[in-house]
Predict the 3D structure of the following.
Amino acid sequence: MLALREESIKCDGCGRCQLACSLGPALRVPINDQGIPKLRTPLLWLDEIEGRRQISVCRHCENPICVDACVAGALWVDPKSGMVRVHQNRCIGCYSCVMECPFGAVRIVYPVEETSTNGVVHKCDGCIGWQAPLCAIFCPTGALQTAKNAPERAAKRRRERAMFVSLTTGTVRCAVKKHG
Amino acid sequence: MRLRNMAKYVIIGNSAAGLAGVKAIRSKDPCGEVTIISDEKHFPYSRVLLTHYIAGHIKIEDFFLEDRDLFIRLKVNQLLGTRAIAIHPLHRTVELETGQAITYETLLIATGGLPAFPINLPAKIKGITGLRTIEDAINIRQQAMAGAKVVIWGGGLVGVKLACALHEAGNSPEMIVSSPHLLSQVADDEGGRLVQQHMERHGLRIRCSADVVRVVQDSAGGLKSTILNNGEEIPCHLLVVCKGVRPNTSLVDKLLSGSGGIPVDSRMRTRLPNIYAAGDVANTYDITRQESCSMPIWPHAVAQGRTAGLNMAGEKARYRGSLPRNALEILGLPFISMGIVQAPAQEEWEVSIHRQGNNYQKLVYFQGRLVGAMLTDRVEPAGRLQASIRSAAGDWFDQYSV
Amino acid sequence: MSQKVVSANSQLCTGCKQCELFCSFEHEGIYSPRLARIRVVKFEEKCLSVPVTCAYCERPVCEEVCPVGAMKHDPATGAAQVLEDLCIGCKECVNVCPLGAVEIHPKKGTAMRCDQCKGDPACVKYCPAGALQYEPLSHTVRDKRRARVTAWSLD
């Protein structure tokens, strides 16, 4: 399970995350007759809210509200990966999920080709099958980072901060040791 | 200490709240006996999809979101197509129309709502219907595809969705709306008018401030036309009444006083011991209006059903409060409204409006707190706004009184 | 700084992790370090162990970042709370906590953080080395100051 960390304050709006998200899967799918890879729409968005930049990307919540809200069974939690995934062919484009996600990470997108009458739900697919989420790999500022899962992130943070403690106590210990 | 496998759970109603209740009970108690009773013979289905079926977006199989063997896997006794007619709290039994009595330790009433029919309409004549069940949807679609002239009475969410669905199915319905504008319960007049103009651009005919006063039958007993309050006669084979739902409280009307839905606390408990209520039948706390009332929407029913089920199985879960809200797509125009959208012209209320073409964004503040929002077209901020409204509403767990 | 916090003296900590075991038992009824609200970080090569738990920040960013208002603290006692009925498990609090003191419950999917056991923290009670104290931070600072000055004065 991937825990995506975003620090919007570091985001400079370059959009490389969106480019990587669109382009990435194209590296694996066949190209069309003109030799152009078929890009998909990016599954994360950059918003400006009250003057602050926010990265709207799915957090793959443990108790996802969007899944509860879906009336067509199009959003589901994959028990294997823990990701919140989409059955796009079940989506009826009702916008209930858009109304629920507190991160603005679920959106309805109308396909360019007129194959269906309604827009369908689009959200981060967790880059299942990739080693790490492409957006985080390509983010130049570190606004998007990943960890294998939430406990690993917390453990890593604890270790980093505890290092500071080890530096300061080291000094005291030396002082005490010198004088028995 | 009571042994778990002697627990007997009974749930009346197998729609959103009933199904969520069953799943929640089983998540905590794998052994207790669970029985689900419903007057509908269908396996639980998504009522919100009815208009999408009429439009031709989905097939009958798509109504059912769970695997058909769910109740077998969860070891739930199914009494579908059986109506419960009375509850006897002293004996802790539910009486069925077959005469059978089912005993319970804890009971969940999730009987939902019934379409409200205005009293001036004759009851049960061919050609007049509501839209609440799969049978209603099948009937409406069949008649629409056969070219029937359809009149929709009601300009609320179901009425608007139905009009768009019939339009997409190739039928051309008329809409008769009592209020001065569409979506009067969830939109202000500018939003309602924006939606109306959009629908009219697609060729739909909508009359506001109009009412059906009577119907005219043909010689075969079917419907011939409807007469409006201004005297106009509209040819009509099928009149679909979309005037809202009222809570289906017939089982407890003799046991509890009061009108509207069954009042419940934050654990979904009613005043009657060991009896819970959830979904369209229940009155819960509106966190923006700060009062208890009925708010029949699908996500409320699911969350309430789950909370009721967890409490019945012994976990003290609390319901996170009702926020009236609706999302729909009206012939390509997304529309989302939440909380209080019509602000009174008083000092403590502030309104912020942004309008550009079809994009209408309205935010309503009370005492500086966000209490409502309405968005059309560019609806992406809706999720964040809902989170703001909920945080602004603060702690409400103790506000409940049953 | 009169809010009492669980403060750790890593000089005294032996790394036995009794705190983790008693914390999980107090809150979950079983001995399981994964379910503890206090975790011990070990630097084996330095013979150093550092217990880490919620520092009761003056500006709790975990509460600011929660989108559903599930991270609150009791206004009377100051004790940190997770309103599990509201928590959706988005892990924003886990991501933002500078100390790594917030975790997600593996079964419930909701956040967990130190609630100071209603004013009588189990970890403090059961620490065999006396490495954990439950006191206002000003006291811990005062004691550390005293220890440092004492060390200097022996020069």
Notes: Chain A touches chain C through 33 residues (CB under 8 Å). The radius of gyration of chain A is 21 Å.
